[in-house]
Amino acid sequence: MSPQSNNKPGKPGGKEAQPLIIAKTPAEEQRLKLERLMRNPDKLAPIPDRPKEWNPRAPPEFVRDVMGSSAGAGSGEFHVYRHLRRREYQRQDFLDKMAEKVDKDLDYLDKVEQNKQAADERTAKRRKKREKLKQKKLMAKKAKLETKNKKEDDADKSSESSEEEEEEEEEEEEREAEDDAEAPSFIMGKK
Questions:
Q1: The dihedral formed by the CA atoms of 104, 108, 113 and 116, expressed in degrees to the nearest 10
Q2: Residue 3 contacts by C-beta under 8 Å, 6 or more apart in sequence?
Q3: What angle do the packed helices 77-157 and 161-180 form, to 10 degrees?
Q4: Distance CA 94, CA 104 (A)
Q5: What does R_g of the chain's alpha carbons equal in angstroms?
Q6: CA distances from 108 to 99, 103, 105, 116 (A)
Q7: Measured between alpha carbons, how far is residue 84 from residues 73, 91, 96, 124, 130 in Å?
């Protein structure tokens, strides 16, 4: 037995004979599976397909042996009827569950759409508020520049009145600072 190490005639002995190991615990079984996968890492790991959903057998289109209410039915007919009835109840339960699942899916999609719409509305409202604040700041800046330019023009006309204007400007800034600060809505320490 030179080239063939296996006991099978006609087969080349490329693989070594593996001893049969029986796993005693689930962890050991998992370890053995991983070892087998890691022996040849280039080989793709088998990934099982998703199991198909159970479907009941469709009701027959043509019933050949219709059971009637006539006398003389054998003792086995009741069992046949019972199995047919059980199968029909299973089918109806399945259809009810499928309808419920479809309803839940539609409710979920509606809720997602409503949440998205509400988020878009909030975003638009906040964007509008930001734009309004930006415009307000821009207008204040322009007004300040205009007053500054006016004062510079006035300063050129009369150098004496510039000191008075500076004092007035300081007073205006103080007033603006006072106006910007909100009055406290409550005073601490008093009851």
A1: 170
A2: 12, 13
A3: 160
A4: 15
A5: 44
A6: 14, 9, 5, 12
A7: 16, 11, 18, 60, 69
Distance, in Å, from the CA atom of 121 to the CA atom of 50, rounded to the nearest integer, reads 40
DSSP for residue 10 = T
- pLDDT (tens, 9 = 90+) of the chain, 191 residues, equals 444 445 555 555 556 677 788 889 999 999 998 888 888 889 888 888 888 888 888 777 887 766 666 666 677 778 888 888 899 899 999 999 999 999 999 999 999 999 999 999 999 999 999 999 999 999 999 999 999 998 888 877 765 555 666 777 777 776 665 555 555 555 666 55
Which DSSP state fits 183? P
Amino acid letter for position 86: R
Q: Print the SS3 string covering 134-146.
A: HHHHHHHHHHHHH
DSSP state of 155: H
Report the alpha-carbon angle 66-71-72, nearest 5. 85
User: What is each CA distance from 115 to 3, 8, 125, 128, in whole angstroms?
Assistant: 71, 67, 15, 20
d(Cα 186, Cα 188) in Å, to the nearest integer? 6
d(CA 38, CA 48): 18
Tokens encoding 180: 């910007």
